[in-house]
Amino acid sequence: MIMTSTCIRILGIALYAHHGVFDAEQELGGRYEVDVELVYDTTQAERSDDVRDAVNYASAIAHITHAFTSERFRLLEAVARHVSDHLFAVFPALMSITLRIRKLHVPVSAAFQAIEIERKALRAEQSL
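The structure corresponding to this sequence follows.
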């Protein structure tokens, strides 16, 4: 049997959340952009042509938004882990997640567009 996988890329999810090292960031919040790549086994979805057998990207966006905004974190790395863990729990077919988070306004004295982190995670059963 042939197993196939597909990567869904969702780019530029605009979010407002209360993450940051400084107390003012925790209180006032800030703007973020999120990109995600979701790789999953598409064998069943390809055969059935049924969205219930796929990773529904509208549902993925809703879950990303909820996980990103439902708790406060000091570090973007902790936010990324929380979002990834939530997606793995909700979508059992996910094999890997690449999550990029951009913090658009950072309270430091330098001129730049954004700070971005990237986190790659594989489901435990997967191998590199």
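The chain has one domain: 5-122.
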